[in-house]
TrEMBL record:
Cited HAMAP family: Ala_racemase (MF_01201)
One Gene Ontology biological process: D-alanine biosynthetic process
Protein name as catalogued: Alanine racemase
Cellular component GO terms, alphabetical: cytosol
PANTHER family: ALANINE RACEMASE, ALANINE RACEMASE, CATABOLIC-RELATED
Positions where N6-(pyridoxal phosphate)lysine occurs in the chain: K33
InterPro entries the record matches: Ala_racemase (IPR000821), Ala_racemase/Decarboxylase_C (IPR009006), Ala_racemase_C (IPR011079), Ala_racemase_N (IPR001608), Ala_racemase_pyridoxalP-BS (IPR020622), PLP-binding_barrel (IPR029066)
Domain Alanine racemase C-terminal: 225-337
EC identifiers of the protein: 5.1.1.1
UniProt: substrate binding residues: R118, M292
Family matches, as SUPFAM superfamilies: Alanine racemase C-terminal domain-like, PLP-binding barrel
Amino acid sequence: MSEILINLNNLKHNVSQISTKIGSVRKIIAVLKDNAYGHGLVLMAKELANLGVRYACVRSIDEANDIKEFFDDILVLSHIPNGNENIDFTYAINDLSALEIIKENSKIHFAIDTLMHRNGILQKDFELACKIAKKRNLKLLGAYTHFRSADEIGSDYFAQKMVYEKSKKSLKAVACKFGYENLVFHSHNSAATNRAEKIDDDFIRVGISLYGYNEFCDTLNLKPILSLWANRVSKRVLKKGCCVGYGAKFCAKEDINIATYDLGYADGLFRYNGNGELFIENGKKLLGKMSMDSFSCEDSGEKICIFKDVTKWANFFNTINYEILVKLSPRIKRKIVTE
Ligand SMILES: *Cc1c(COP(=O)(O)O)cnc(C)c1O
């Protein structure tokens, strides 16, 4: 069976690099949404909690429920309020209307719209937002924003940072009038954390850097923690002139030993269509089109590593590391290893 191995030493290294930069592991909000970017939600929650992380954020209540035993609190980013919330968790308030619907007494963080205009409350609406929150007995504990260009060269990130700093000051003052004090703030994702010299917040929200990557720059010298492995289903000699797989896309110029391995696009891999050169970890090329449940390459033994670092695959498919990782099927077994 194919499997995913999670390297615990590399995870320790990444957590330690990040903690050193921001001063404490307690300031990390571990972003575990979408099956922990494909790494395995419960497994990652458990290991991060062991390493001292106390706070996580996820996409949905379902995800939060799966890992509640591991953290002091969990921020749910994309819950759509229905009045039936589990009040053990903290909910992101993505617009004003959410305040009217979410269950009374819920713990909330305001998302603040500083420039990305994807989610959040604008500075001009802070007064109104606090008023509704108060009226509905909501527990406003903090607020955050998200940078749209932290992973791009240029001044946009700095411009947004200034809007954020102003919003933060304003919200602190407004919230105080409604009896909401000691709000916590967070804004930096992985890319922002990497490039920042100083972070003036209570927490950071990091996903991809825990998993060992950074798209923009890597001042933290992170190490990828996930490797993907497949097992041989069968092997044969592909005779000179014979072709393997759908559409006869690869034909042997001489007799070669080929094997078929048990990973395909049903496992969340992008479908390789046989064009261009895509390699597994040992440098062997995929031969012919990828099938739903398998692909073929030169026989490399019973067990092969597809990748230890997804960057090459992401580049090949013209996408970002996140997308290769997050698509890995939850059905693939995940296991912790220490090497
Ligand atoms: C996904 C997400 C993050 C984490 O981003 P990384 O680039 O993986 O660090 C942080 N904040 C919000 C709101 C997110 O949706």
